[in-house]
Amino acid sequence: MTETTYRNRRAVRIENDRVRLTVLVEGGHIAEFADKASGVNPLWTPPWPSIEPSAWNLFRTPEYGDDAEARLLAGIMGHNLCLDLFGGPSPEEAAAGMTVHGEASVLPYQISALADALTARLTLPASQLAFERQITIEGRVARIRETVENLTAWDRPIAWTQHVTLGPPFLVPGETEFRAPATLSKVIESDFTGGKGYMETGAEFVWPFVPHKDGGTVDMRVFPALKVSAAFSTHLMDPDNGPAFFLAWSPSSKTLFGYSWDSADFPWLGIWEENHCRTHKPWNGNTVTRGMEFGVSPMPETRRAMIERNGLFSEKGYRWIPARSRVTVDYRAFIDTADAIPERPYIDASNS
Predict the structure, then answer these.
(1) Extended beta strands in 66-109, E state
(2) Positive or negative, the Cα torsion across 38, 42, 43, 47?
């Protein structure tokens, strides 16, 4: 274990002879999962300077914006945990200080570590949840176990999403490929792109061919070769296809990257694209990302909207945590080199 800095942020690093994994202290983001031989880290590093969320201030750091997303964007990087909100707060929640995607994205974690394993913990004061993440690296695989404990005397529904975001140089428009065992899919019902998106708003379809707003379809297994675009769609994982997963492959570096999980834990894979579309601070039209966001909710939205939606395609859209109880999930990340993208993970990425 190494206490270090990463992109000017306080961080903890674990590694073996093949891979290096770095977690930021504030926000708990998995900022780096790099192949040592190639130096490639597929996870997204924003193009703007990263600061600790505790250093963000509406008046002293205006370069990050002035809305409920600003504090998150000041410190976001790589794999971000959304708990217990996936999406934006209501106006009343925002006025009370709640940020987009919830408290877990911006609070400091207590991290203890050995050379190849770490444990990160925090308590969410507003949500009254205790969270623990254990990460162990074995070869080219990171085994991750998460536990959420409900500290209240009430059964309660929560959002819980792994917001894994990929970025350059791994992510290249028109080149980077993807695979996932998805089935029924849907484009988000509102156009947040200002007319710059290419997907038909609210369209239901079968993965991977999403309806284009001007007719025809687009194969989502390749990041679109467009100068400007944006999108969000959700995809129901196939419970009869073994462990759920996504694979991403970069032809230029021959890097294969992905995650696998139990679809009973996280039935939804949300795919978010941002390609030079957002021009407000801190995006400024400079960002290329693709989020591969697996979780218990199909759409990023307020808590009220999540509950009122209830679910999609007969699958629930949130998870119950019983009073004074804990729920634990296991999943894995993996990185390797490959001459082409396989249809399924060939690294042992099962959760058994």
Answers:
(1) 79-84
(2) positive
Q: Phi and psi of 8, rounded to 5°?
A: 65, 20
Residue whose tokens read 């290096």: 20
Q: pLDDT band for position 221 (50/70/90)?
A: very high
Burial (CB count <10 Å: 0-12, 13-18, 19+), residue 97: exposed
d(CA 123, CA 303): 20
Please give the backbone phi and psi of residue 64, each rounded to the nearest 5 degrees, phi first. Answer: -100, 5
Q: How far apart are CA 83 and CA 259, in angstroms?
A: 19
C-alpha distances out from residue 294 to 169, 170, 258, 327, Å: 23, 20, 12, 17
pLDDT score at 351: 41
Q: What is the pLDDT of residue 348?
A: 59
Q: What does the pLDDT look like over 225-239, one tens digit per residue? A: 999 999 999 999 999
Contact 304, 85 (CB under 8 A): no
Cα separation, 352 vs 348, in Å, equals: 10
13: three-class secondary structure by DSSP: strand
Whether pTM > 0.85 for this model: the answer is: yes
Residue in 68, 48, 70 with CA at minimum distance from that of residue 60: 70
For 40-78, write each residue's pLDDT tens digit: 999 999 999 999 999 999 999 999 999 999 999 999 999
307: left (phi over 0), alpha (psi -120 to 50) or beta: alpha
Q: Report all structural domains of the chain as residue ranges with CATH numbers, in order of start.
A: 2-337 (2.70.98.10)
Strand pairing report for 268-275 and 315-316: unpaired
